[in-house]
Request: fold
Amino acid sequence: MTMTRLVVATGNAGKLREMQAYLADLGWELTLKPEELEVEETGDTFAANACLKASQVALATGNWAIADDSGLQIDALGGAPGVYSARYGKTDSERIARVLRELDNQTSRQAQFVCAVAIARPDGAIALQSEGVCRGEILESPRGNGGFGYDPIFYVPEKKLTFAEMTPDLKRSISHRGKAIEALIPQLAILQQISGK
Ligand code: IMP
Reply:
């Protein structure tokens, strides 16, 4: 059976690392999105942006494409930074510093990571969608060196660890992205068989 190409529609190195690990061994030939292909995230929900990215990358490359749109929602900030998580500052440390500043003097530090995943056919039509959520708390200062983005300030009480202190496998088993992709794996295996014929 031929392996069908699946373009991973992200330019974020941290996300890419996780998605490649989660999608390995499913029978797809994973390739990266061409660097010059940038999709503007004009949607106001994670799902809308994931669909936009998957559709446009599929259409532009003529291949199946998978996209993730994700972010951090903080209860005391009314769900901010939300879909603006990547645009909340210029670097990861600036984004973390801004969140910590905005939460200064806040007693409620509850938050969640959300991840929407969409898979598009080569004609741009959305074939599969899913969403994963992981609840946690925002610490007062960063802890740990692993992961990416807001991981050092996102603490999961059940594990007594931040995302940045977890092994990749532990993060996968409880994270928003791990859950969103896990939910798609049975359908992805079926799609791979259909598309490879
Ligand atoms: P976007 O989906 O490209 O709009 O970017 C999502 C942004 O949310 C990333 O740039 C990170 O700042 C943040 N983010 C999403 N998932 C994670 C995660 O697993 N850990 C830490 N930060 C994340």
About this structure: Residues 12, 41, 69-72, 85-86, 113, 147-151, 163, 175, 177 surround inosinic acid (CB under 6 Å). The mean pLDDT is 94.
